[in-house]
């Protein structure tokens, strides 16, 4: 029995370690639950590396009280475990050195203007510099920050009997006009929480930004573009109450992850479009910059026989009310690349290379579309060995990457101030 348990644990550990580097669930053949499980396991093991190694060590210590290590199987299993730990430590080294690499990439793409923006928050430079308290207690860590105040569950609109709400993060004791950040949560347009990406919002609020994490209705109760319309209503509310909350209505940046990254992109790409503003067509809905993180940009390829993605296609059928053949207009509207123009504001695209849900090629194709229109102050960051949803909680990976996002947002604001007519 002990031999069986040891073998099972060793094989499971090997599986979970390899899944961090290459998700086992295939987008072409795996079910949606299998893909989600592969993503969740890779995300947890990759970011809770020290805890994972301690757990493995503790379990191996328990096995040492048996006679398993008097057998070749025991020593072979021990070698597998140690090899896995070494490989995971290499991943940790890559993540801790990621900020320096991202800094170089941003300088290459943006030039000297990037060097003029000094970071206010520094990423951890070693395992001892990681804020594990924030990772394990994300809500308490954010809400205990004395520099900011958080207004939860504020109603900004009622639609079909449903109250649409937002969370507001803002600096304390200041009434001047602050730059605004509009955060849109992910969840495949069918679920999600406004508390996603609280680390970024709390940090930006501490630096003088007013951040709004907005909720919206979900499919299958609604179909696109109702999700986008809800977020545009939130932006209308923000601008109508700009004086009350100390927001500069002339400078608001959108951001979000996954489905939220998609909606954030459309917010930036479809300003003042009457078809997305029914009943409030005259409202100003322009956005001054966008940071989509592991966003969704391709909506037709999952239905292609050469590149099938059945799990994603199933979700899109709910979101769009059909397929590209039955709802062609909806799929034209929902695709961000179709809205790129010379008036498109700056974009910072961020995508993990080992993302189990969204392939990096999807973001790369959208990046090329932005480049074809010469969108200014834009950049694309590919993150090695980084999974989907790395920023939902203050994870190790988030703590290493969020400072770069903060710095980019500050760059956009300072560039806005220095433009003719800027404030």
From TrEMBL:
SUPFAM superfamilies in the record: alpha/beta-Hydrolases
Membrane-spanning ranges: 6-25, 32-53, 73-96
Organism in which the protein naturally occurs: marine metagenome
Record's keyword terms, sorted: Hydrolase, Membrane, Transmembrane, Transmembrane helix
Protein name (record): BD-FAE-like domain-containing protein
GO molecular function (one): hydrolase activity
Gene3D superfamilies the UniProt entry points to: alpha/beta hydrolase
Annotated ranges, domain BD-FAE-like: 166-370
InterPro entries to which the protein is assigned, alphabetical: AB_hydrolase_fold (IPR029058), BD-FAE-like_dom (IPR049492), GDXG_lipolytic_enzyme (IPR050300)
